[in-house]
């Protein structure tokens, strides 16, 4: 018998006397009695699964708030007008509709500081492309 | 629910656990009768004083039955019970240490037991018991679950939340250390 087998053999003998002395029926009665006298306390703490879900929700909401603060909000920004022209939005209008728009501009803008056709009457001689250029020049 | 008097030795642990969960006290008693002795052997070999083995066995079963909802069948009921016994013994050792008693040392173990038992205990067994108390807890439990209870590494690993490979390493460390202690005889 090698050392390891000898150790295993010895280990099997350990506690045998203590186990033999144990009155298992009396132990069983005592255990049942203790369980009956003091039932398990009702768990008031949350189950681990719910804790994990709550932690995930907190992380998600917190992350969202953080990202929202770090990344600037998208949308119409003041001073970033750039190359966007209202005239481009009028692409689908016909020449007559464009003349109406320019006529309304003429009524609003009365100064001579903007580039404009010589008179409102000349607008009738412009085609749609030229009208768009006029609108774009009015936008600056 | 099976009638207690109709239950046989063949009732599985799982069936008895299920019966206990519905309030069948007889099922709990049967589980105690079935597993109390192997548990007592495990506790005694782990260093429990002889005079406290009965109390420790009771405490282990009470804890097990109160938390049986957490037993998912990841290992055998007995294996799960033995790991709870390890925790009970650890708590017992802490309480004893606060009372300035060191229960897990062979030199201060109860000497009031059966004189015949003491006479029969060989010197080698005494050395082995002493050696086991000096091992780290995990090594001691792996060694006893393997050598004393005859469990496979897979079963031990499931009970102790480790891997079979790690359990094997713990076992061989334990054997090496115990050989050094016992080998001189």
Count every helix of chain B, treating DSSP H or I runs of 4 or more residues as helices. Answer: 9
Total strand count of chain A, please? 0
Radius of gyration of chain B: 18 Å
Largest sheet of chain A: none
Poorly predicted regions of chain B are 1-5, 105-112
Mean pLDDT of chain B: 84
Order of helices and strands of chain A: HHHHHHH
- Name the pair of protein chains with the most residues at their interface, and give those residue counts: A-B, 30 and 46 residues
| Span between termini of chain A | 103 Å
Query: Separation of termini of chain B?
Result: 55 Å
- The gyration radius over C-alpha positions of chain A equals 44 Å
Name the assembly state.
heterodimer
Low-confidence stretches of chain A: none
Mean pLDDT of chain A: 74
**Range of helix content of chain A:** 55-70%
The structure class of chain A reads: mainly alpha
The outline of chain A comes out as rod-shaped
Query: What does the main sheet of chain B amount to?
Result: none
Question: Would you write up a description of this structure?
Answer:
The complex is a heterodimer of chains A (140) and B (185). Chain A has 140 residues and is an all-alpha fold. Chain A has seven helices and no strands. Chain A has helices at residues 3-13, 16-21, 24-37, 48-70, 86-89, 95-108, 128-139. In chain A, helix 6 (95-108) packs parallel to helix 7 (128-139). The longest helix of chain A is centred in the middle third of the chain and has 23 residues, at 48-70. Chain B is mostly helical and 185 residues long. In chain B, 66% of the residues lie in helices and 0% in strands. The relative contact order of chain B is 0.11. The model of chain B is unreliable at 1-5 and 105-112 (pLDDT under 50).
Summed up:
Chain A is mostly helical and 140 residues long. Chain A is 60% helix and 0% strand.
Task: Write a concise keyword list for the protein shown above.
heterodimer; A: 140 residues; mainly alpha; 7 helices; 0% strand; B: 185 residues; 66% helix; disordered N terminus
């Amino acid at each position: 018998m090698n050392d390891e087998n000898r150790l295993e053999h010895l280990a099997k003998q350990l506690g045998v006397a203590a186990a033999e002395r144990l009155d298992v029926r009396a132990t069983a009665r005592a255990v049942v009695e203790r369980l009956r006298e003091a039932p398990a306390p009702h768990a008031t703490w949350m189950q681990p699964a719910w804790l994990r879900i709550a932690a995930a929700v907190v992380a998600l909401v917190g992350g969202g708030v953080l990202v929202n603060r770090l990344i600037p909000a998208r949308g119409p920004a003041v001073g970033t007008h750039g190359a966007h022209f209202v005239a481009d939005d009028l692409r689908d209008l016909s020449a007559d509709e464009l003349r109406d728009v320019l006529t309304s501009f003429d009524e609003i803008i009365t100064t001579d500081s903007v580039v404009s056709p010589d008179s409102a009457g000349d607008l009738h001689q412009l085609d749609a492309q030229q009208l768009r250029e006029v609108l774009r020049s009015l936008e600056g | 629910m099976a009638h207690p008097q109709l239950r046989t030795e063949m009732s599985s642990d799982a069936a008895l656990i299920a019966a206990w969960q519905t309030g069948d006290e007889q099922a709990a008693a049967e589980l105690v009768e079935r597993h109390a002795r192997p548990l007592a052997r495990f506790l005694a070999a782990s260093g429990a004083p002889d005079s406290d083995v009965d109390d420790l066995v009771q405490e282990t079963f009470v804890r097990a039955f109160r938390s049986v909802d957490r037993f998912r069948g990841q290992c055998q009921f007995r294996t799960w019970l033995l790991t709870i016994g390890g925790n009970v013994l650890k708590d017992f050792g802490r309480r004893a240490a606060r009372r300035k008693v060191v229960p897990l040392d062979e030199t201060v173990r109860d000497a009031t037991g059966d004189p015949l038992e003491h006479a029969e205990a060989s010197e080698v067994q005494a050395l082995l018991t002493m050696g086991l108390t000096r091992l780290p807890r995990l090594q001691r439990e792996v060694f006893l679950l393997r050598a004393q209870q005859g469990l496979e590494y897979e079963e031990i690993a499931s009970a102790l939340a480790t891997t079979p490979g790690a359990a094997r390493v713990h076992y061989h460390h334990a054997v090496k250390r115990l050989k050094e202690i016992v080998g001189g005889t």
